[in-house]
């Protein structure tokens, strides 16, 4: 295939950026989206140009690094799919593809498609430690957990912290991410001692980072590559209200 790529190029957070157009020939339909960008960068390097900076690590849909907006949608057109799992057979010869970074105040651009997402790390860190009995090791199934709670905890824990929810939200809200991180601990017996204080600290840190408020657009759960349910936000709101009433 021959594709036209319109890519956001920005040298640093302190310099203005713009969309640049590149024509790329010989794209194989079996390539992943990131492999296609590798081919582009090899071409740019050979021509003496600066390659496009983009985040990646595992390339297996696990790490959440491959954060980019493709044709206006975080991670591209396929639901429940990260950018690294998107394959070029989704496109056809002659297509034009627009590629941009996450756009949010709390995710400043580092270079090109790479943004600083350490604000997520600070939200998680604000939650603090989890109390666990470190006495004699017990069998894995010794603490009964209802199947519904276990399933929901696993669903929330599937969040990879990629930031697609923030990129999709018109308010750049991090409520789905924070709700998922709070939710998977709420559903388990470990860490119940810190339950109230944890949610207060995490929400306060989320606000300090400059994320917007949730106004129920639900774009976040639609864009989430792990399909985290909007229920996570409802859970977060309930936990936060209870914590405000009862305190730590």
From TrEMBL:
<dbReference type="InterPro" id="IPR006058">
    <property type="entry name" value="2Fe2S_fd_BS"/>
</dbReference>
<dbReference type="InterPro" id="IPR025192">
    <property type="entry name" value="Succ_DH/fum_Rdtase_N"/>
</dbReference>
<keyword id="KW-0408">Iron</keyword>
<dbReference type="InterPro" id="IPR017896">
    <property type="entry name" value="4Fe4S_Fe-S-bd"/>
</dbReference>
<dbReference type="InterPro" id="IPR012675">
    <property type="entry name" value="Beta-grasp_dom_sf"/>
</dbReference>
<dbReference type="InterPro" id="IPR036010">
    <property type="entry name" value="2Fe-2S_ferredoxin-like_sf"/>
</dbReference>
<dbReference type="InterPro" id="IPR009051">
    <property type="entry name" value="Helical_ferredxn"/>
</dbReference>
<dbReference type="InterPro" id="IPR004489">
    <property type="entry name" value="Succ_DH/fum_Rdtase_Fe-S"/>
</dbReference>
<keyword id="KW-0479">Metal-binding</keyword>
<keyword id="KW-0560">Oxidoreductase</keyword>
<dbReference type="Pfam" id="PF13237">
    <property type="entry name" value="Fer4_10"/>
</dbReference>
<keyword id="KW-0004">4Fe-4S</keyword>
<feature type="domain" description="4Fe-4S ferredoxin-type">
    <location>
        <begin position="150"/>
        <end position="180"/>
    </location>
</feature>
<comment type="similarity">
    <text>Belongs to the succinate dehydrogenase/fumarate reductase iron-sulfur protein family.</text>
</comment>
<keyword id="KW-0001">2Fe-2S</keyword>
<dbReference type="InterPro" id="IPR050573">
    <property type="entry name" value="SDH/FRD_Iron-Sulfur"/>
</dbReference>
<protein>
    <recommendedName>
        <fullName>succinate dehydrogenase</fullName>
        <ecNumber>1.3.5.1</ecNumber>
    </recommendedName>
</protein>
<keyword id="KW-0816">Tricarboxylic acid cycle</keyword>
<keyword id="KW-0411">Iron-sulfur</keyword>
<dbReference type="InterPro" id="IPR017900">
    <property type="entry name" value="4Fe4S_Fe_S_CS"/>
</dbReference>
<dbReference type="Pfam" id="PF13085">
    <property type="entry name" value="Fer2_3"/>
</dbReference>
<keyword id="KW-0003">3Fe-4S</keyword>
């Amino acid at each position: 295939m021959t594709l036209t790529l319109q890519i956001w190029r920005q040298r640093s957070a302190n310099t203005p950026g713009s969309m640049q157009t590149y024509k790329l020939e010989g794209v194989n339909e079996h390539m992943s989206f990131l492999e296609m960008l590798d081919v582009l960068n090899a071409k740019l390097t050979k021509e003496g140009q600066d390659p496009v900076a983009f985040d990646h690590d595992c390339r297996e849909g696990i790490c959440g690094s491959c954060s980019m907006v493709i044709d206006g949608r975080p991670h591209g057109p396929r639901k429940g799919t990260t950018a690294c799992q998107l394959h070029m057979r989704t496109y056809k010869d002659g297509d034009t593809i627009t590629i941009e970074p996450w756009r949010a105040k709390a995710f400043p651009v580092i270079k090109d498609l790479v943004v600083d997402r350490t604000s997520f790390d600070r939200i998680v860190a604000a939650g603090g430690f989890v109390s666990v009995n470190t006495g004699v090791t017990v069998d894995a199934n010794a603490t009964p957990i209802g199947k519904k709670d276990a399933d929901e905890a696993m669903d929330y824990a599937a969040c990879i912290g990629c930031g697609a929810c923030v990129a999709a939200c018109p308010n750049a809200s991090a409520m789905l991410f924070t709700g998922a991180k709070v939710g998977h601990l709420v559903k388990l017996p470990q860490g119940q001692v810190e339950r109230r204080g944890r949610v207060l600290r995490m929400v306060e840190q989320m606000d300090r980072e400059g994320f917007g408020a949730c106004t129920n657009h639900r774009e976040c759960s639609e864009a989430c590559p792990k399909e985290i349910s909007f229920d996570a936000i409802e859970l977060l709101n309930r936990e936060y209200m209870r914590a405000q009433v009862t305190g730590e």
